[in-house]
# Entry
Amino acid sequence: MGALMSQRRHAVRLAYLNGLLWALGNGLASTTLVVYLALDLGAKGRDISLILAAPQLVGVLRWWVAPLIGRIVERKRFCLASYLGSVLLLLTLPILSAPGVLPSPRWSLAALVAIWCTYHLLEYLGTVALWSWLADMAPGRIRGRFLGRREAWMQAGRIVSMLLAGTFAYQWRAGHPDAARWIGYAVPAAVGALMMLVAIVPLGLAPALASESAAATGRWTAPVFDRRFRRLLLFGCWFSFFNGVTQSAQNIYPARVLGFALLSMLLLRTGMRLGQLASAPWFGRLADQVGYRPVMVAVQIAVATGPLFFLAATPESPWWMVGAFVVWSAYAGLNVCLPGLMLKLAPGTDNAPHIAFYYAVTGVFYAVSTVLGGVLFDALAAWGTVRLGSLELDHYDLLFLFGWIMRTAAVVLLLRIVEPGAWSWRDWLASRTVAAGEAVG
# Structure
């Protein structure tokens, strides 16, 4: 037992280091940089939609691969091989998508999309094995604290890398006005890929810990017939879909209507991530005490109010939007508790199919809703304003109001999830009733 505990402590420290290094690399090779690179290659709206949605759509393949993890290849080896393949592929992205390497810009753009999708698929497969592995690193009684601290390290990495990537792109454009702009986007992406390559090293040094979830023996359909897990999946699909629907409005409104510069948005996002960095360990400790679901209910109510701050913000009073990034700092609670609850509800002896199924299905819902949200945004803009009593609402107002209502409604689905050992109002009232009866007796 002592040797196992020592191995777990060593693995946990390496998992923190892996999270920090991976977040540094991922922030440098971000989707935003790839979108700017695609725009420099002449991408149109449909191309950008494909870049945003396609990785999640191809990610559904992880569901079919997950039951093979541990059956054909050992979990740690599968994780390392998948991450290594994804990073090596990402390193080719700046090279093959560079103007002039392939016969035309359309060929370069097609190469970018293909590499981007395949890179994500391999990374998703590695992450399924990693989550199964992380479940063994931290037993259930302390898993919330482990996930909270790892999330804090990852947020720290994202903050640093986001600022570095934005600064480099700006400095490159300012210092080399006659040079190709794509270089300012490609260099951070290449450095990010190298950083993610370094992030694999701590995982290679970590013990396999094949004590609980080492072998996959279940079926692809196992998550479908798991009633408790289906309720979590339903919440995940709802949450993902209605987060995606408002993405177009949320990304366009600050720049086009409120006049926020890129630097202002960068500062807001940095502040949000600093809030998540500070609160993630606290959310993890709280989840260990009262359960994941109660924390998620409170957090969901808070983060759902984000669109209301967009609704209140106007060109005359634009800084109302800051409130959205303040409440979105609470997303740290979902980032910690959602995977924690998923691991708790998945069978400990065979959790890879459940993990893969959850992320595959919710990813598709987010991808589809992001595309539909863009279509809905354009349709409502063409429709014009809608009068609601004395209020006149445009397409932005309608989407923000709709987003708040539907995101808040997700709480109903959260309350239906049965989490063993979690605090609940029903149990608390029952204990108060019993205590009152004993006092009277």
Observations:
- Residues 211-217 have pLDDT under 50 and may be disordered.
